[in-house]
Amino acid sequence: MKVIAMVLAFLLNCTFANKEVAKKNKKSKLYAPQIECDIKAARIMNPEFIAKCPPGCQDAKYRVYGTDIYASFSSVCGAAIHSGIIDKSGGKILVQKVSGQSGYKGSYSNGIRSLSLPRWRESFIVSEGKPKKGVQYPSILDYSSVKSPSVKGGTSLRREYLTTASPLPDTQIVTSIPKPTIMTREFVSTTLKPTALPTTVPTTVTTKVMMVATSKHQHAMHKVRDIGSSHVHPAYSSVEAVASRQIQAVQGRIQNQGIQRQEPIASFRKPASSTVNLGFSSKEDLVPKPLEPVSQGNPNCKVDLSFLIDGSWSIGKRRFQIQKQFLKNVAQALDIGVAGPLMGIIQYGDEPSTEFNLKTYSNSKDLKNAIEKILQKGGLSNVGRALSFVNKNFFDDSNGNRGGAPNVAIVMVDGWPTDKVEEASRLARESGINIFFVTIEGPDENEKQNVIEPNFVDKAVCRTNGYYSINVPSWFSLHKIVQPLVKRVCDSDRLMCSKTCINSADIGFVIDGSSSVGTGNFRTILQFVANISKEFEISDTDTRIGAVQYTYEQRLEFSFDKYSTKQDVLNAIKRINYWSGGTSTGAAINYAFEQLFSKSKPNKRKIMILITDGRSYDDVRGPATAAHHNGIIAYSIGIAWAAQDELEAIATDPDREHSFFVDEFDSLYRFVPRIIQNICTEFNSQPRN
Question: Where are the beta strands (DSSP E) in 513-612?
Fold first, then answer.
């Protein structure tokens, strides 16, 4: 009986132990490590992981780049909210790393405005935080950043990589032996404590770690900023191999001595009483230095900028250096970055050549270093050829052109060009490139006879009012125009060459909803309105659309500032309900001016397109004349029983360009291309002063 009782007790203990183990395993599978709102995907080395986001990550300071697929330096939790996986209260998410994309499109979704980006080396996608069947997810995330999120209290770490190979003095370190991926030294303050410790305290091990360095440069070290890549630089690969062998040898000695091995923790603990001699010449070298924040650029100056610099022999070496210093000063003042201005440089002489394009450098520091390395090419001063090159090649999507940012070309000229610039400049302007000229030491009275094209600056720039041209009497005073030039370049409202006929108007539709129109024909009119609206670039800063419907009375369907995307405008047009009633066209024109066009932006062209199918019950001439005097360009579209004399009175002169008549509603669509063409022809004929 005793034997049976003992067997039963043993079986019960085993069953209980198995249940406990199962509970622990089940609990561990469900655990998701917490991450902070500012953690970017690039900082986490794991290719796939489940994590838990805290509440409050919808703040604009946690930047997100892309839509659905996000650049890896986006906030992980911000991207999860943008994609709709979680809301602002937080929650579990599943993150998968994917390859870099050639472009990331920004959008507004779930209360977060994501930004656009030309390209990035790594991406990620976010989905619901449910584990996939058969996949084991890490309970502790591997971070590549020098600032570990598990260390609190503002303590910073500095990771330095050895590149030399001679023996250093023995170092006494109280630590566990982590499995390194690269050979590093970690510096922490004497009060630093790891936040996550094992439940059992392991035996403390005092280990002598021999680090290999060359005898020629015993204490030389290179600081490397970790940018999130998991690859080891070739220069450190040999050091990594040596370090790995040494660590393995130490681990072997620990196991032979029967000492318990401690699992890796976030950092090493250094006793306050210990003194570590690492071969530094001063205590200042031991002070952790915070990483310099990388600017995303000035968001109030989002332009794509090309500098055409003079590399001709006439400029000389000394003045070429002054020109480069000027460029560096401008780069610093602009605050280069992916969310602000981007800048590329073309050097011209006999032929133009690209030094670097818009996507080569994304911060002012790297750009300034690149400018310093530019070498003078020599040759003539063929500015016209350089402008043709910019127009055909530089502002291309493959070179980093962002589309929504104005294109600006600043031409530096020493003296005067050796070819003609007028035709090349005209073609560039018509492509939407804002051309600025900075001329230094222009020709004097005796030299003007040598200039191939007199008044070449006025023939080249976007406007001839002096805003787009700056003359500097001497190279030594060039530094004085840095701030004035930057201010002009960043004032997007005055970059007139970026304003085209399809992105620079406030267009108000005034729609006849009288009883004679009928429900079916009214839908045909709305389709006509939508077809015209589709042809324009619609946003807060581009073309805006508004609509008024009228009978005896008037109704504002939506104002210019109501919708800021093309799709929203088209949806709003579909939702307009047919009213039915009389026809008071004159009162409708007055109403459109007071309720719609009076709120138009000063830099917008005001265009009214009125559509009616009959004669008005009131006078149209007085209201139409008042609208014309207030700068409204009026188009009148008449159908069926519309009165020709009223259509001509409503339309801006010349009538034949602004007034149209069609017998049937179904033929309205034929006038869409002609109306768009007339709007653009009128825009392009504006004077350049």
Answer: 544-550, 554-558, 605-612
